[in-house]
Amino acid sequence: MANVSIIIPAYNAEKTILKTISSIQKQSYSSFELIVIDDGSTDKTCELLSTVSDPRLKVFSYKNGGLPVARNRGITHASGDYIAFIDADDLWTPDKLELQLAALQESSEAGAAYSWTAFIDEEEKLLYAGKPLFFEGNIYPHLLVENFICSGSNILVRRKFIETTGEFDSSLKSAEDWDYNIRLAAQCPFVVVPKYQILYRKSSQAMSSKVDVMEKAILTVTERAFCIAPTELQYLKKHSLAKTYQFFTKLYLEYVLDSDGIERASQRIKKAVQLYPKIVLEKETQRIFFKLFLLQIFPYRKAIQFIKFFGKKFPMVSIQNQSLT
């Protein structure tokens, strides 16, 4: 029996599924089973999966149920003592499983491990790196404030804590990974592998129609999380909502850059500051104000040129001395 079960939900993933599987096959830790849940794909996903010659690969096809349902279905097929998830368009560095597993085995109390995330484009070129954070042990209060684990492609979890946490919420259309990690963090301590090991692919496909859906889901997760959070942590709610509105601002500035999107971005960053004034001291908030300033005083195309120029001159986080391939 494989020690680790890796679950990939796949829906119409023909452009990226083989690259994702290749990054898993390159793992330095090889005692795993790879479970792909075909979530009712109508493209060549299944055809491409049939070309993969690897006894560790198992493919199960279902009618489309959505990402949370696909992950839940994957869990029912998993036999490993540890379970990991990766979306069908993301990548891992070769040492991801090895180092996360070692971190868990060094801490008998820890139930889950996470690593840092770097963001890549469709050509797998580095866009920027997420902020390096070192939260360990009881990370529950930190996760209430912000989804610093970033995506559903990150954690490695002891199976017994998957069983006590329950299923991914199938009613959520977004942020289901944050909801799950909050509930998981209430069950067990976490450990961190302080390396960029998750490569999150950002698509250039239009997301304007999805931003409203994401906003609704994230607010739902926030409200639900604080409904069950203990009294002594309720003071974090305004900070959490401020970080949420800061995130919405970034979404609108990235995907809905028309006059309506810019107005919505302005409204949301103002709301973030009203909820938690200290957020203006964060570099992320200052970048947002700078972008909004450029968009208000320059024509759109010129403003975007400036934003891209300053983004290259002053990247969010630099990655030094680490290969991401």
Automatic annotation (TrEMBL):
What's the superkingdom here?
A: Bacteria
Q: Taxonomic lineage of this organism?
A: Bacteria, Bacillati, Cyanobacteriota, Cyanophyceae, Oscillatoriophycideae
Ranges where the Glycosyltransferase 2-like prokaryotic type domain occurs: 5-246
- The species is Gloeocapsopsis crepidinum LEGE 06123
Q: State what protein this is by name.
A: Glycosyltransferase
